[in-house]
């Protein structure tokens, strides 16, 4: 199967119900260009250096999403161009993104990462932490951040019931933030959940944005 065929198959499965972030991490520019030529404009990367390198050498109408764990000291490298940062998981990172947004005179779109998996290794806030963090004062300070929703990663397991429960819990956190914090904010509308193995399940549970890598670009050489 070619990348183009894979992409079409994934888009057919999604059937317009969610946005597709094609996760191109570890793949060479030629592969990204195949997806580009097939019409895909939203690409996701999880390493800052790789993201910057690909941004510099590929067409400028690509929307680059940072989907991986982001350290505060690296925000400056992507702040001028990144379209969406999925994994905002600390207050410090939020404030750094705001500062770098100001320097670049642009609002940087972000998703708040929520810890939904049972695994300790995954990052993210709890619901309680978010409700405590997102005070009117903090939100008024974040003039160069656009909070567009939440992101989560399910446990790496074959247990679909567990994955479904974790997706439900992310949808619940989104709904709670929507009704308690972002009441009149139409920008707060995205739930980024679902990867190659579970994006169909994620869409059933309310995902608006899926991050699909290996089903489009093939298996990666390293994790
Ligand atoms: C790698 C990655 C994906 C894509 O994973 P696949 O299983 O290859 O679809 C999605 N989200 C994040 C955060 C990732 O790091």
Explain the overall architecture:
It is built from ten helices and eight strands. The radius of gyration is 17 Å and the shape is globular. The protein has an eight-stranded parallel β-sheet with strand order 7-6-5-4-3-2-1-8. With 223 residues, it is α/β, with parallel strands linked by helices. The model has no long low-confidence stretch (mean pLDDT 96). The protein has one domain (3-217): Alanine racemase (TIM Barrel, Alpha-Beta Barrel). It is 41% helix and 17% strand. The protein binds pyridoxal-5'-phosphate (PLP). Pyridoxal-5'-phosphate (PLP) binds at residues 23, 25, 46, 67-68, 153, 195-197, 211-215.
Heteromolecules bound: pyridoxal-5'-phosphate
- What's the architecture in CATH terms? Alpha-Beta Barrel
Nearest-integer average pLDDT: 96
**H-E order:** HEHEHEHEHEHHEHEHEH
Instruction: Specify the number of helices.
Output: 10
Distance between the termini: 22 Å
Rg: 17 Å
Highest-level CATH class: Alpha Beta
Summarize the structure.
The chain is of the alpha/beta class and about 220 residues long.
Question: What are the salient characteristics of this protein?
Answer:
single chain; 223 residues; alpha/beta; TIM Barrel; eight-stranded parallel sheet; 17% strand; globular; binds pyridoxal-5'-phosphate
Indicate the topology.
Blueprint: H1 3-14, E1 19-23, H2 29-37, E2 42-45, H3 48-57, E3 63-66, H4 75-78, E4 84-88, H5 91-103, E5 108-113, H6 127-133, H7 136-141, E6 145-151, H8 160-180, E7 190-192, H9 199-204, E8 209-212, H10 214-217
Parallel strand pairs: 1-2, 1-8, 2-3, 3-4, 4-5, 5-6, 6-7
The structure holds pyridoxal-5'-phosphate.
Pyridoxal-5'-phosphate binds at residues 23, 25, 46, 67-68, 153, 195-197, 211-215.
């Amino acid at each position: 199967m070619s990348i183009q065929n894979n992409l079409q198959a994934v888009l057919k499965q999604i059937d317009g119900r969610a946005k597709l972030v094609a996760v191109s991490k570890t793949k060479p520019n030629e592969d990204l260009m195949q997806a580009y030529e097939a019409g895909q404009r939203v690409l996701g990367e999880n390493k800052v250096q790789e993201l910057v390198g690909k941004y510099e050498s590929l067409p400028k109408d690509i929307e680059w999403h940072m989907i991986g764990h982001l350290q505060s000291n690296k925000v400056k490298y992507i702040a001028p161009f990144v379209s969406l940062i999925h994994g905002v998981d600390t207050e410090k990172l939020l404030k750094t993104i705001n500062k770098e947004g100001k320097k670049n005179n642009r609002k940087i779109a972000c998703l708040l990462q929520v810890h939904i998996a049972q695994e300790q290794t995954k990052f993210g806030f709890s619901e309680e932490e978010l409700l405590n963090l997102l005070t009117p004062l903090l939100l008024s300070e974040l003039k160069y951040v656009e909070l567009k929703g939440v992101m989560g990663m399910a446990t790496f397991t074959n247990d679909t019931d567990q994955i479904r429960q974790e997706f439900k819990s992310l949808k619940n956190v989104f709904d709670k933030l929507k009704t308690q914090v972002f009441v009149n904010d139409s920008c707060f509308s995205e739930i980024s959940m679902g990867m190659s193995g579970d994006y169909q399940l994620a869409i059933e549970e309310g995902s608006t944005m899926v991050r699909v890598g290996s089903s489009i670009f093939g298996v990666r050489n390293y994790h």
